[in-house]
Amino acid sequence: MMFHMKTATVRDLRQHFPKIERWLEEGESVTITKRDKPVALLSLPPQTPKKPTKAQFRARWSRNTRIPAKPGAFRQMLQDRHRDFEK
Question: Which alpha helices (H) appear in the chain, and where do they start and end?
Answer without folding.
Answer: 10-15, 17-25, 54-64, 73-86
